[in-house]
């Protein structure tokens, strides 16, 4: 059950390949299994039994597949459960405003605490293909937007700590203009 690839494995540093569309039965099965893994990791009994850490996002390279596939499972700002399975996801537009998790980011492939701010876009509009191979777009904000960007990074061989400022891990990136005001969107989440 816990077949998650850990940091140090070169697969996590490679660029994953586009999935040919429509997706094959094998691609679909693997993406469904990624959602199932997240469900299990969030279920206290199953997580205990299989010694799983809870996660809300998983990218295919983390289970040793060089494919552009992402699974997400978490609640949105209305406490509604959101499950997303995506082939070939990409950002088609994003906010200028940034956001970050105040508690830093964690990753199922990283068995240590890496403190610091991971700057992300506050809002993104994504394009992807669902399990049926149908194209869809979706706007994300808040925690969901951050999780999506973290997982998309995995498809490009980027780890969250690559984005933490080495000199000053808690440095908050601001637009390089003194007249730019910070808006509500920039308040830290969680
Ligand atoms: C228990 C049951 C404090 C520390 C606050 C926990 C079910 C960290 C935050 C969870 C942190 C669930 C999460 C992510 C952070 C921290 C991921 C708890 C699982 C909160 C998800 C991918 C970054 C995503 C906000 C090192 C495994 N997840 N917390 N970051 N939750 N979770 N990330 N940050 N500090 N990581 O982890 O799934 S994007 Cl659902
Ligand atoms: Ni990760």
TrEMBL record:
Known EC number: 3.5.1.88
List the catalysed reactions. Answer: N-terminal N-formyl-L-methionyl-[peptide] + H2O = N-terminal L-methionyl-[peptide] + formate
Question: For binding Fe cation, which residues are annotated in this chain's numbering?
Answer: 107, 150, 154
Instruction: Write down the superkingdom of origin.
Output: Bacteria
Q: Where is the active site?
A: 151
Entry's InterPro entries? Answer: Peptide_deformylase, Peptide_deformylase_sf
Q: Which residues form a coiled coil?
A: none
Question: Can you provide one Gene Ontology molecular function annotated for this UniProt record?
Answer: peptide deformylase activity
Entry keywords, A to Z: Hydrolase, Iron, Metal-binding, Protein biosynthesis
Show the Pfam families listed in the entry. Pep_deformylase
What biological processes does GO assign it?
translation
How does the cofactor attach, per the note? Answer: Binds 1 Fe(2+) ion.
What this protein needs as a cofactor is: Fe(2+)
* Oxidoreductase recorded as keyword: no
Say what the protein does: Removes the formyl group from the N-terminal Met of newly synthesized proteins. Requires at least a dipeptide for an efficient rate of reaction. N-terminal L-methionine is a prerequisite for activity but the enzyme has broad specificity at other positions.
Stated family: Belongs to the polypeptide deformylase family.
Provide the protein name. Peptide deformylase
Originating species: Salisediminibacterium halotolerans
This protein's encoding gene: def
